[in-house]
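Subject: 4-hydroxybenzoyl-CoA thioesterase structure
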Amino acid sequence: MKQNEFQLRVNFGDTDAAGIVYYPNYFKWFDIAGHQFFRSIGLSPAKLMKEQNIILPLLDVGCTFERPLYYDDIITIKTTAEEVNRKTIKLRHEVFRQDVRTGHGFELRGWVKEENGRMFAVPIPDDVRQLLEEDGVGACVHMNPLLNA
């Protein structure tokens, strides 16, 4: 299945009063990594909407927290297309600080068409399914240049 990696630095505003990453940030990072994953394989969500009226709404999400993260940690989010069903795509996300996994989870996204103000799920095209199910890394592994600042 197709994979991608996205890297970022934990900001001070991502932490709670104890200095530990506040848990909703994992869901924010999953969303960012998911959009980056789709861009990396040529399925930019903005382009899909503009050219095909296709949106990728979030239908379900989950996360297991294994270790704390702190301000200034550099994390890597590894995203894999775990399941491609008729009208949904399940992305698996793993969050790492160096080689230590700190959490993992998933996003379930629909393949939805917007037409005349209505939204409805439609089958994922065969070429998109094939692209998602291919082994390999997306064309763009995003490593944030600000991490070296």
